[in-house]
């Protein structure tokens, strides 16, 4: 994260001469001094601006890569929430995703957030897609809410089976939850208390 910060005013990513923390964002030393001298308030960056600052936006039909590689699945954090970046992008463009639906990629680039490359799908679509394309993660389930459906016993089982070598894809089919959730369980990112 530290290396990815950029000034919310001039967008510079160089440390000139140092950074001022502003909410969740940064202002470079040069801009900060200029603003202070002018007596103007520092403009607040919108969540949407912050989202696009993490995207390598290209041509309309090209893949737009999510640059923030902090997390394996391209998480976007805001207001103490964590969402998948491609889901956030989808909602910006097309509106709210109906509960329970996945956002899948038409392209072969799981980190792509170009809304033109995204479509809504069901768990079944997701599985078909993965099998067809021979890849492990393309679509992601809405949120962590459905991890509440799991019992403590199942969470323990998932961890044991994973250690025994069962793939996350298989576990996701077996327990009917998303691969992201399996990943989070296996890596103790959720259900940490068990
Ligand atoms: Zn600046
Ligand atoms: Zn794409």
How do you describe this structure in short?
With 194 residues, the protein is an alpha+beta fold. Helices cover 34% and strands 14% of the residues.
Assign a percent range to the helix content: 25-40%
The shape is globular
CATH architecture of the largest domain: Alpha-Beta Complex
The chain-level mean pLDDT equals 78
Q: What ions, cofactors and ligands are bound? A: zinc ion
Low-pLDDT segments, ≥5 res: 140-147
How many strands in all? 8
Structure in words:
The protein has seven helices and eight strands; from the N terminus they run ββααββββαββαααα. The protein has 194 residues and is an alpha+beta fold. The protein has three domains: 2-45, Erythroid Transcription Factor GATA-1, Chain A (2-Layer Sandwich); 46-142, Homing Intron 3 (I-Ppo) Encoded Endonuclease, Chain A (Alpha-Beta Complex); 144-194. One zinc ion is lined by residues 63, 107, 109, 112, 114, 117.
Summarize this structure as a short list of keywords or feature phrases.
Homing Intron 3 (I-Ppo) Encoded Endonuclease, Chain A; 8 strands; 194 residues; two-stranded antiparallel sheet; alpha+beta; Erythroid Transcription Factor GATA-1, Chain A; 7 helices; binds zinc ion; two-stranded antiparallel ribbon
């Amino acid at each position: 994260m530290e290396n990815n910060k950029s000034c919310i005013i001039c967008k510079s990513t160089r440390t000139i001469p140092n950074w001022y923390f502003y909410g969740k964002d940064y202002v470079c030393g040069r801009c900060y001094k200029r603003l202070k001298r002018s007596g103007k308030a520092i403009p607040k960056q919108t969540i949407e601006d912050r989202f696009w600052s993490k995207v390598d936006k290209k041509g309309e039909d090209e893949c737009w890569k999510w640059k923030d590689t902090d997390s394996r699945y391209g998480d976007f954090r805001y207001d103490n929430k964590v969402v998948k970046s491609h889901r956030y992008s989808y909602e910006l463009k097309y509106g709210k995703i109906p509960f329970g639906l996945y956002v899948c990629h038409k392209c072969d680039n799981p980190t792509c957030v170009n809304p033109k490359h995204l479509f809504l799908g069901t768990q079944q679509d997701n599985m078909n897609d993965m099998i067809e394309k021979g890849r492990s993660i393309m679509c992601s389930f809405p949120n962590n809410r459905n991890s509440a459906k799991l019992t403590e016993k199942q969470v323990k089982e998932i961890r044991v089976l994973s250690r025994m070598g069962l793939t996350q894809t298989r576990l996701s089919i077996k327990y009917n939850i998303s691969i992201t959730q399996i990943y989070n369980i296996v890596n103790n990112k959720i259900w940490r208390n068990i």
